Amino acid sequence: MAEQNREECAGKSSCSRSSCEGCPSHQGGNAKPDFHEDLNPYSKIKHVIGIVSGKGGVGKSFVTGQMASMLVKAGYKVGILDADITGPSIPKMYGVHGPCVGDERGTFPAVAEDGTKIMSINLILENEEDPVIWRGPVIAGAVKQFWTDIVWGELDYLFVDMPPGTGDVPLTVFQSLPVDGIVIVSSPQDLVKLIVKKAYNMAGMMNIPVLGLVENYSYLACPDCGKKISVFGESCIDEVAQELGLPVLGKLPISPDYAKKVDQGKAFEIEAPFDGIALRMLTALN
Ligand SMILES: Nc1ncnc2c1ncn2[C@@H]1O[C@H](COP(=O)(O)OP(=O)(O)OP(=O)(O)O)[C@@H](O)[C@H]1O
Ligand SMILES: [Mg+2]
Predict the structure, then answer these.
(1) Strand order in 117-119's β-sheet?
(2) Residues 213-225 pLDDT 10s
(3) Of 95, 182, 221, 272, whose Cβ has the fewest other Cβ atoms within 10 Å?
(4) Are residues 25 and 127 in the same domain?
(5) Which CATH number does the domain housing residue 264 bear?
(6) Atom 1 of ligand 1 has which residue's CA nearest to it?
(7) Per DSSP, which regions of the chain are E strands?
(8) Cα(56) to centroid of ligand 1, in Å?
(9) pLDDT band, residue 129 (cuts 50/70/90)
(10) CB burial class (10 A; 0-12, 13-18, 19+) of residue 87?
(11) Pocket around ligand 1: residues whose beta carbon is below 6 Å from it?
C-alpha cells in the first residue's frame, strides 16, 4: 500500500514527505485518518452523548447527572464517563467512592444507588483530594482509557461529562468515541451567545450533531410567592436556539434543594424539569 501510494504521489510537487507514514493518502485517496478507539470488548454501548459548554461552572456536570437520571427513571441502562480529569465532580454528586476494582477484562465502574455506572479519575486516585497535574496528552490518554479499559457491560446510554471549553479533552472525545451528539449547557447571560456558538461550531467542525441546548440557572423561584427571578439576567436561549435551529431541552431553575441533594451525593433524587422533548429526542436515538 505504501509503495502504491508513493507511486501515486510521486511527481506531485506539493508533496514534500520523505515517507507515506502519517499521510492521509497512505490510507488511500482522500480518506481521513480514523482516530476512533476500540471499546472495551466486554462492553456494549448503544449511544454516546457529550455534555459540553464553552464556559466553566454553568452546570455541565449537574445537567449530565440530570439527563442520565431522567433516562434511568425511564428504564434505560445508563453510564457516565467523567471526562473532567482535573476537576471531576460526578462521583461526589452520586455519592460513590473508589477505588474501583478490576480483573483481566478491565476496570469496573462504580455503581451508584440508582444503578448508574460511573467512571471518573477520582475513583482511581489513591486519595480523592490529590490534584491531577498532568499534561494535555496524558489527560487525553486517561479519557481514552475510560473507553477502552472500562468494563461498562451493556449500556443504552453513556453520557460524557466534559471539562469546560473547547480544548484537548472534547477534541479527544469527538475524535476517539462514536459520539451520537452533544448537548450544550449555558447560563442566561448575553455572553452565552458567544459561548454556545463556540461549542456549536466546534461540533460542526468535527461532524458531531448538536442535539439541543439546556439553560441552567435559568431563574430562581421566590419561595414565598413563586415569582420567577432572573438572577443572571434575562434569558436569551430561545433566541440563540432559533438562530442555530436547535431545540431548547430545558430551562432549569437555581434551586437550593438541588445544591443540597448534590452535596449529599443524591443528585439522582432530583427531578429536573427538562422539556418533554429532551426524553423524546434521546429515546428516539434508540
Ligand atoms: N440549577 C442548579 N441549582 C443549584 N445548584 C446548581 C444548579 N446547577 C448546578 N449547581 C451546583 O453548582 C455547582 C457547579 O455546577 P457544575 O459542577 O455542574 O458545573 P460545571 O459546568 O460542570 O463546572 P465545571 O466547568 O467546573 O466542570 C455545583 O456545586 C452544582 O451542584
Ligand atoms: Mg463539571
Answers:
(1) 110-111, 117-119, 78-82, 153-161, 43-52, 181-186, 210-215, 248-251
(2) 999 999 998 888 9
(3) 221
(4) no
(5) 3.40.50.300
(6) 254
(7) 43-52, 78-82, 102-103, 106-107, 110-111, 117-119, 153-161, 181-186, 210-215, 220-221, 228-229, 248-251
(8) 9
(9) confident
(10) middle
(11) 53, 56-62, 84, 87, 89, 163-164, 216-217, 252, 254-255, 258-259, 262
Percent of the chain with pLDDT over 70: 88
Q: What pLDDT score was predicted for residue 139? A: 92
Are 44 and 26 found together in one domain?
Answer: no
Ligand having the closest approach to the CA of 253: 1
Stated pTM of the model: 0.89
Task: Quote the number of domains for the chain.
Answer: 2
Identify the three-state secondary structure at position 90.
helix
Domain containing 205 equals 37-283
What pLDDT digit, counting tens, does each position of 70-102 carry?
999 999 999 999 999 999 999 999 999 989 999
CA-wise closest residue to 53 among 227, 246, 159, 184: 184
